[in-house]
Amino acid sequence: MKILLVEDDQEVARFICSSLQQVGYVVDECHCGKQGLLQATTETYDAIILDRMLPELNGISLLKTLRATGSRVPVILLSAMADVSHRVEGLQAGADDYLTKPFAFSELHARLEVMLRRSSNEQGEQTVLRCDDLSLNLLTQEAKRAEVVINLQPREYRLLEYLLRHQDRVVTRTMLLESVWDYHFDPQTNVIDVHISRLRNKVDKPFSHTLIHTIRGRGYVVKSAS
């Protein structure tokens, strides 16, 4: 997933950018409105994180201009202006979400994931997830690697689905526990290690190259060998 961050406060921008990169996003960064608009209209992004108060061209004007071009890219508007009237103005200008400063990165990340999921649904939900010669049919719940059917237990299926939905992005242990097991992170549990090992034995071990990788100290990623 590729994100455009338009934020003139360079300390805030560094924090957001590094945090997004740590969870697997590719991020382009701009520090003024005019440059942000140029980037948004000449490059393709999955979402934009846009500060409201920017030099040269403010976030509201940037957003209105962007929407006037017909762009439907999802946008989260960031602002220290928290009044209802300010939030309404931002949403009416074309923002998909409005987050007031200061905020925790976990909230920004959660809102970004929801926004991206909503955008994906509007464009038509995928019925088959693929990575290299691995496929997962979401309708039949059948997994195949090189056209060989892989028998998965329900939890293994959910784990593989989550990894494939976040293909090429590092997925942390916390994200897996909260999304696949529905409980908060317990640093003592080895449940993820056990299930990843079982999944690898089915998805990777019988085949010529590895798709599920461990990123030491960060988590796991599914990515193609090419």
Describe the structure.
With 226 residues, this protein is of the alpha/beta class. It has 2 domains: 122 residues, 3-Layer(aba) Sandwich (Rossmann fold), CATH 3.40.50.2300; 95 residues, Arc Repressor Mutant, subunit A (Orthogonal Bundle). Helix content is 42%, strand content 21%. It has 8 helices and 11 strands. The strands form 3 sheets. It has a 5-stranded parallel beta sheet with strand order 2-1-3-4-5, with helices on both faces. A 4-stranded antiparallel beta sheet has the order 6-7-8-9, covered by helices on one side. Strands 10-11 form a two-stranded antiparallel ribbon. Helix 2 runs parallel beside helix 3 and helix 6 packs across helix 8. The chain starts with a strand and ends with a strand.
List the helices and strands and how they pair.
Elements: E1 2-6, H1 10-22, E2 26-30, H2 33-42, E3 47-51, H3 59-68, E4 75-79, H4 84-93, E5 97-100, H5 105-123, E6 128-131, E7 134-137, E8 142-145, E9 148-150, H6 154-165, H7 173-180, H8 191-203, E10 212-215, E11 219-222
Parallel strand pairs: 1-2, 1-3, 3-4, 4-5
Antiparallel strand pairs: 6-7, 7-8, 8-9, 10-11
Main sheet: strand order: 2-1-3-4-5
Helix-residue proportion = 40-55%
Care to count the β-strands? 11
- Parts with pLDDT < 50 across at least 5 consecutive residues: none
Q: Characterize the biggest β-sheet.
A: 5 strands, parallel
The CATH superfamily of the largest domain is identified as: Response regulator
Helix/sheet category: alpha/beta
The CATH topology of the largest domain is Rossmann fold
